[in-house]
Amino acid sequence: MSKAESKSREEIIPKRITGWRVWFFRLVALTIIPVLLLGLLEVGLRIVGYGFPTNAFIKCEVNGTASYCNNAKFAWRFFHPTVAKKAGSFVFPAHKSNDTYRIFVMGASAAAGTPDGAYCFGRFLQVMLRRRYPQVNFEVINTAMPTINSHVVLNVAKDSTRHQGDLFIVYLGNNEVVGPYGAGTVFTPLSSSLSLIRLGIALKATKLSQLIMNLMETTGLRDDSKVWHGMKTFLEKQVRADEPGLKIVYSHFEKNLQDIRRVVHRSGAKIIFSTVPSNLKDNPPFASLHRPNLTDADLKKWNELYQRGLKFEEAGSYTESAEQYLSAAEIDENYADLQYRLGRCYWVIGEYDKARERYRKAGDLDTLKFRSDTRINEVIRSVAGGRSADGVYLVDAVRVFEENSPHRIPGEELFYEHIHMNFRGDYLIAGAIFRQVEKILPEWIERYKKDEQPLCTEAECARYLAYTAWDKYKITQEVLNVIIKQPPFTNQIYHNRQVGQMEQKLLKDFEDFRSPGALDEIQAQYRWAIQQAPSDWRLYWNYGRFLEYLQDYNSAGEQYRLVLNFVPHRYRAHSKLAFISGMRGNSDEAINYSLKAIQINPVYAEAYYNLGVAYHKQGRFDEAVKCYYKMIRLTPYLAQPYKNLAIALYQQGKISEALETYRSGLKLVPDDLDLHYNLAMILEKQGHRNKAIKELRSALEIDPNSVKTRKALEAILSRK
C-alpha cells in the first residue's frame, strides 16, 4: 500500500479514543446527560401544570385585587397528604399599601391558636395594635399550623420574606422531637446530617419527585392508607432524655433558628423569637421509662418505695409520701411520673421552689415529647438574645407565664392541656409581644399613636374577638372529648380527676350559654364585633357556626357566604354551605359546593361525605358509594359513612356488601349503637334470627335505654 493510500485510510477511519478521554466521556454519559434529561422532564412537567404547588403562598384574586393566600397543599412536601395539616385561611394583597405594617407569625399549633384559631395570640396582638394606632393598617398573617417544626418553618420563612414583611414573630419548639426529622417522629425519620435533610426537602419540591411518589402509590410501593390518629399516633415513639438522637434534634433546631434569623435579617425585616412555656403543674408526663441499666433487684426495691409513696399520697400524708419518692429517686430518678408526684407533694405542703424544680424535671424526662423542654428554651434564648442591633429580639414568654402563675408554676390557669394556651394565656403572650413591638415600630407609625389609649384589657379583647359564652362551651367540649379523653392523655396519672374537673366546667359553660337571654346576648356580641371589624372573616365564621348550632340554616348560610367574600379558598366554608344546601333540599347546590371544597383540598373527608349525601338523595348510588368509600379511607374511625354506605349498597340490592360494610365499621367503631341496630335489621330480613338478636343485645349493652332497639328485640323474640 502506498503512503498516499495509507494516509487516506487514516483520514477515513477515526482514531480510537483512549486514556483520560474515555473516562471523561463515560463521566458525561453517567452524570451530565441523565441530569439534563431529568431537567427536561422537570421543565416539561411544570409546563403542563403537573402536581401541586409547594410554596407556602399561592396567587389568588379577591374582589378584583391581586393577592396571596395560604396554600392548602404546602405541607404535602413534609407529610403524606392524608395526614398533612393546614394553616388557618388567610389572604393579603400582593401590593402592600403605604399605610400597612405587615407581620408574619410562624410556628405550630400553639401559635395557630389550637383549639380555635380565632383566639390565637396573633389576633390579640392585632386588636391591641389597631386600638393604639387606629390609622395604621396592621396585617397579622398567621402561617402557623399543627404538627410542624423548625425544618418546615424555615421554608415558610423563606417564602414569607418575599412578601414585604416588616416583622416576623416566631413561637416554635413544641414539635421538634415528634415533627418531621425528629427523634420521636412517625413521619420522615431523623438524620444526623442537616444538609441531607435539606436536600431531601428541596427535592420534594420538584414535580419529578411528585411524579415518583404518585407512581409508587399507584403500584402499591408507597402506603396510601395513612390516617391521622392525633397524638396517639406517637405512642410507640418514646425518647429518653439522654438518647443521642435528642442531641441531634437540639443541634438541628439551633441551626434552623439561626437560618430563620439570617433569612429574615437579609430581607430587612425585624424578628421576635419567643420562648415556649408549657403546663408544668396540671399536665402530668405522657409516658415514663426507667434508666436502661436498672437491675431487677433495684427495680423491685424502686417499685416497693414507689407503691408506699402512693399509699401515703392517697391517704393525704404528703410529707411521708415525698420521703418514699425521694428514696425511690436515689435508685432511679429518670422516671418522669416519679418526679411529677414529688412536685405535687411539695406543692401541697407548700414547698413551692422544690415543687417547681420537680415539675420542670418531670417535663424534661417525659418520654413522649410533645412540649418544649428546658434545652429547647435555652436554644431560643441563645439564638435571639443580645442581637437587638441586628433587629433580633427576645420575648421570654416562659418568664411571663411564671410571673402570672401561682408560685411561679404555670398550670391550668393559662393552659387547656399541655401546651395550648387558654384565652388568658394567649392574652398574656400577646401583651408581652405588643410591648416589644411598640419599642421597634418605625417612626411613621409612632406619629399615629393614641397616647391616652391604654393597653387593651382581657375583657376588651374578648369583646373585639367575640369570645362568647357559646365559644367557651364549644372549646371546652372539644378539649375534653377530642383531646383529654383520647390517648396519650388517658395514660396520664390523675387522669380521672382531670376528666371530672373538665366535665364540671363543661356543665357550667353549658348552663351559662343556655341561661335565659344568653342566646340573644351572644348574637348581639357577634354583631357588635363585626361592626368594629367588618373585614374579619373569623367573626362571620364563628357566628355562622353558632347559628348553625341553633339550626337557623338560612342565617348561617349568609355568614358562610360572607366568609367566602374574604377568603374564597376556605374549603371548610364551601363544605358548610354544601351541608346547608342539602338540609334545604337543594342537592345540586350541595354538589357544587362540595366539589369546590374538594378542588381546594382533595383530602377533606367532610366534603366527600356531603357530596355522597347529595348524590344519594338524587338516587345516584354509584357516585354516592364512591364518595362514602373515599371518606372511610380518610377517616376510618367515624361510624356515619359506614351507615350511609351500607344503606346505599342495600338500596342497590348488594346485600352481602352492605352486611360486610356494617361489620367493617364495627371492627373500628365497636361502640356505635346504630351500626349494631342496622346490621341486625338486615340480618333479620335475611332470616338470620339469632345473629340479629345478638347484634340487638350488643346495641343494648351500649345504650340500655334505646327504645327502638328494645322494641326491635321484643318484636323478633315474639316471632317464632
Give keywords.
720 residues, mainly alpha, Rossmann fold, Serine Threonine Protein Phosphatase 5, Tetratricopeptide repeat, five-stranded parallel β-sheet, three-stranded antiparallel β-sheet, 31 helices, 8 strands, globular
Averaged pLDDT: 93
What CATH calls the topology of the domain at 78-207 and 250-281 and 372-465 is: Rossmann fold
β-sheet strand percentage: 5-15%
Helix content: 55-70%
Topology summary:
Elements: H1 3-12, H2 20-47, E1 57-62, E2 65-70, E3 91-93, E4 100-107, H3 109-112, H4 121-132, E5 137-142, H5 150-160, E6 167-171, H6 194-204, H7 207-218, H8 244-267, E7 270-274, H9 296-314, H10 318-331, H11 336-349, H12 352-365, H13 374-384, E8 392-395, H14 397-403, H15 423-440, H16 443-446, H17 458-464, H18 469-484, H19 495-513, H20 518-532, H21 537-549, H22 553-566, H23 571-583, H24 587-600, H25 605-617, H26 621-634, H27 640-651, H28 655-668, H29 673-685, H30 689-702, H31 707-718
Parallel strand pairs: 4-5, 4-6, 6-7, 7-8
Antiparallel strand pairs: 1-2, 2-3
Helix pairs in contact: 4-15, 5-8, 8-13, 9-10, 10-11, 11-12, 18-19, 21-22, 22-23, 23-24, 23-25, 24-25, 25-26, 26-27, 27-28, 28-29, 29-30, 30-31
What does this molecule look like?
This protein is mainly α. Among the domains are: about 5-45, no CATH class; about 80-205 and about 250-280 and about 370-465, Rossmann fold, CATH 3.40.50.1110; about 295-365, Alpha Horseshoe (Serine Threonine Protein Phosphatase 5, Tetratricopeptide repeat). About 60% of the residues lie in helices and about 5% in strands. The chain has helices spanning about 5-10, 20-45, 110, 120-130, 150-160, 195-205, 205-220, 245-265, 295-315, 320-330, 335-350, 350-365, 375-385, 395-405, 425-440, 445, 460-465, 470-485, 495-515, 520-530, 535-550, 555-565, 570-585, 585-600, 605-615, 620-635, 640-650, 655-670, 675-685, 690-700, 705-720, and strands at about 55-60, 65-70, 90-95, 100-105, 135-140, 165-170, 270-275, 390-395. The strands form two sheets. It has a five-stranded parallel β-sheet with strand order 5-4-6-7-8, sandwiched between helices. A three-stranded antiparallel β-sheet has the order 1-2-3, with no helix packed on it. Helix 22 (about 555-565) runs antiparallel to helix 23. The longest helix has 28 residues, at about 20-45.
